[in-house]
Design brief:
Layout lengths: L2 H17 L2 H5 L29 H16 L10 H7 L7 E5 L7 H4 L7 E5 L7 H13 L4 E7 L3 H12 L7 H15 L6 H18 L8 E7 L6 E3 L5 E2 L2
Parallel strand pairs: 1-2, 1-3, 3-4
Antiparallel strand pairs: 4-5, 4-6
Helix pairs in contact: 1-6, 7-8, 7-9, 8-9
Length: 248
């Protein structure tokens, strides 16, 4: 299904998604916005679950701080105790959604040192988009009022390698994997003649393409869509300044 058809499907289902939750949301008692963490161990974490949307700038700061802890092997491992489990058992207010890769080495909650109820994550090989993925992100943005969407790629991506091989040889992948490779093929073609490693350039090009598709879709108006890349060797996430896109 192409982007236009996917947008039509998402638009038709928006009312149904949003109508299902106002009563439950209204029943949740209001809480003040979380204070800034006072200790180094808590830096870059929310001290409690907010009921008002976290701003995209604040959400990005939380992710950056959490990743800095992860890369330095100084994780706080927040929001993993019994109290937190009880707190989020009846309501959730995550502050960001991460569209990441299937790769076992890039779990967003660990990479950003977050805990229960902090992130909504969607993971597909090569950040491939389909109706289920787009509908999940739509739920996060429209129903849970998340203001930050991160498209997270990573180095040495197997899906990018498969796309490069397809563009190089013209031999398609077999089975459902072929759809993922076809989605990444434009990025591989775009990166083919760039200096440096073809696969790594394909990863960056693919993140930019997925980010732009989400950012240009009115379904996700009001959210900041950001592209990022995870370095497997250092543990650092680099956010791409050129990929920031805010719709009113």
């Amino acid at each position: 299904m192409n982007s236009r058809s996917r947008r039509s499907v998402l638009t038709m289902t928006a009312a149904a998604l949003t109508a299902a939750v106002p009563a439950a949301r209204a029943a949740t008692p209001a809480q003040p916005a979380p204070p800034s963490p006072a200790s180094a161990a808590g830096a870059g974490t929310l001290s409690s679950t907010p009921t008002t949307p976290v701003s995209p700038g604040r959400a990005l700061t939380l992710l950056q701080a959490g990743n800095a802890r992860y890369a330095a092997l100084r994780q706080a491992h927040p929001h993993l105790d019994a109290a937190r489990r009880k707190e989020v058992a009846t309501a959730q207010h995550p502050f960001a959604v991460v569209l990441g890769c299937l790769d076992s080495r890039v779990p967003p909650e660990l990479v950003f040192d977050q805990g229960l109820g902090d992130l909504m994550t969607v993971r597909t090989a090569g950040q491939a988009l389909d109706d289920a993925v787009l509908g999940s992100i739509q739920y996060a943005v429209q129903v849970k009022h998340i203001k930050l969407v991160v498209v997270l790629g990573h180095e040495r991506c197997g899906a990018a390698e498969a796309a490069v091989e397809y563009v190089r040889t013209g031999i398609p992948a077999e089975g459902p994997l072929a759809e993922i490779v076809e989605q990444m093929a434009p990025a591989a073609r775009e990166a083919r003649h760039l200096p440096g490693d073809w696969v790594e350039n394909t990863v960056r090009a693919n993140v930019a393409r997925v980010q732009e598709e989400l950012a240009s879709d009115s379904t996700f108006d009001g959210a900041l869509v950001v592209g990022a890349r995870f370095d497997l060797d250092t543990g650092h996430v680099t956010f791409e300044p050129s990929s920031h896109h805010r719709r009113a």
